[in-house]
TrEMBL record:
Family the entry assigns: Belongs to the asparaginase 1 family.
Domain Asparaginase/glutaminase C-terminal residues, every copy: 234-345
Residues where substrate binds: 77, 110-111
Entry's Gene Ontology BP terms: asparagine metabolic process
UniProt domain L-asparaginase N-terminal: residue ranges: 23-212
Entry superkingdom: Bacteria
NCBIfam families linked to this entry: asnASE_II
Gene3D superfamilies cross-referenced by the UniProt entry: 3.40.50.40, L-asparaginase, N-terminal domain
Active-site annotation: 31, 110
GO MF annotation: an example: asparaginase activity
Protein name in UniProt: Asparaginase
InterPro entries listed in its UniProt record: AsnASE_II, Asp/glu_Ase-like_sf, Asparaginase/glutaminase-like, Asparaginase/glutaminase_AS1, Asparaginase/glutaminase_AS2, Asparaginase_C, L-asparaginase_C, L-asparaginase_N
């Protein structure tokens, strides 16, 4: 349980001016919680800090809200498994059910942040703000970016402007919609983009500048609910390339994959062996989806392939398409036919 703010009693979803919003910061690890041996060491570090220490390093943050914090795990985000992400989602969902919690901030490694954010965006059943943040530089760095990112994340979580926008990713002064955001640089502080759609909001001088709300339905408006999930099914990602072989497709089928997402070339085009592999999988009841390895744009649906159970992942990248497919395959049989799953790809 988070340590409770002293004044926490029943309060509206976002507090009136008389009552400060109650925000829970959930720590999961990542570079924001890491330290290195020297202030100039920016890429070689270890997770050492918990959420309370991160908060203590941010001047003025306590003036934004009544902040409590908790640690669910403390790892590099590459170590987060499907089970851990599910546990985090359940925890956040339960926190938001509490009338005395107005919003949640999650501190997280940036490498797989977009996966956690999109998963929460599809499953959390609340309109209260959920903001995921992190850092590209460790807490020990000269010009560490974590403190301002965390400040801005709490600012956003405490704001009525972030209500009903789904899960947002806050880094480098920008708030991105979970569905659109992706990490596109290995080390720069400005590592995240929402592509052509642009971000949802910016923070300038401690004020939120709203730009555009996310276009796709999320959170309360999806058919995916955590309570109906016991275990997430195996969905594998395969990368297509010139000269690809069939063996990886066979291996995924043999490993019991219920879904395969391929990061296909261009507009979802498949090399001959990838197409053979997907057809083989689809014939055995594995739901397959084509995303694009280009990093932008939608994969045009192909009716011929769709008839064979090979769907289009719309403009989701492979890692996000995988999560949507896992959630879709967790639904009861009548709700996860290939037609229905294509509809989920087109909509969420
Ligand atoms: N910048 C980061 O947060 C990267 C880190 N390795 C992670 O946990 O994802």
């Amino acid at each position: 349980m988070p340590s409770r703010p002293k004044s926490a009693k029943t309060r509206p979803a976002v507090s009136s001016s008389a009552q400060r919003p109650a925000i829970v910061v959930v720590g999961t690890g990542g570079t924001i919680a890491s330290t290195a041996s020297q202030a100039t060491t920016l890429t070689n570090y270890t997770v050492t800090q918990q959420a309370d220490a991160l908060l203590a390093a941010v001047p003025g943050i306590q003036s934004l809200a009544d902040i409590s914090c908790m640690q669910i795990f403390n790892v590099d985000s590459r170590a987060i498994t499907d089970t851990m992400r599910l546990r985090l989602a359940r925890k956040v969902d339960r926190l938001l059910e509490q009338p005395d919690v107005d919003g949640v901030v999650i501190t997280h490694g940036t490498d797989t942040m977009e996966e956690t954010a999109y998963f929460l965006n599809l499953t959390i059943k609340s309109a209260k703000p959920v903001i995921v943040t992190g850092a590209m530089r460790p807490a020990s760095a000269l010009s560490a970016d974590g403190p301002l990112n965390l400040y801005n994340a709490v600012l956003l979580a405490a704001s009525s402007e972030a209500q009903g926008l789904g899960v947002l990713v806050m880094l480098n002064d920008r708030a991105h919609a979970a569905r659109l955001v992706s990490k596109i640089h290995t080390t720069h502080v400005d590592a995240f983009t929402s592509g052509e759609a642009g971000c949802v909001a910016e923070v300038q001088d401690g004020s939120i500048v709203s730009l555009r709300p996310p276009a796709r339905p999320h959170t309360l408006d999806t058919p995916f609910a955590l309570r109906q999930i016991r275990r997430l099914p195996r969905v594998d990602i395969l990368y297509d390339y010139q000269g690809a072989g069939l063996h990886l497709y066979k291996a995924a089928i043999e490993a019991g994959a219920r879904g395969i997402v391929v990061a296909a070339c261009g507009n979802g085009s498949l090399t001959p062996q990838a197409e053979r592999g997907l057809r083989l999988a689809a014939r055995q009841g594995v739901v397959c989806a084509r995303s694009s390895r280009t990093g932008a744009g939608r994969v045009t649906p192909d009716l011929g392939l769709a008839r064979r159970g090979i769907l289009s992942a719309d403009d989701l990248n492979a890692q996000k398409a995988r999560l949507l497919l896992m959630l879709a395959l967790s639904l009861p049989p009548h709700a996860c036919t290939p037609d229905k799953i294509q509809h989920y790809f087109d909509r969420y």
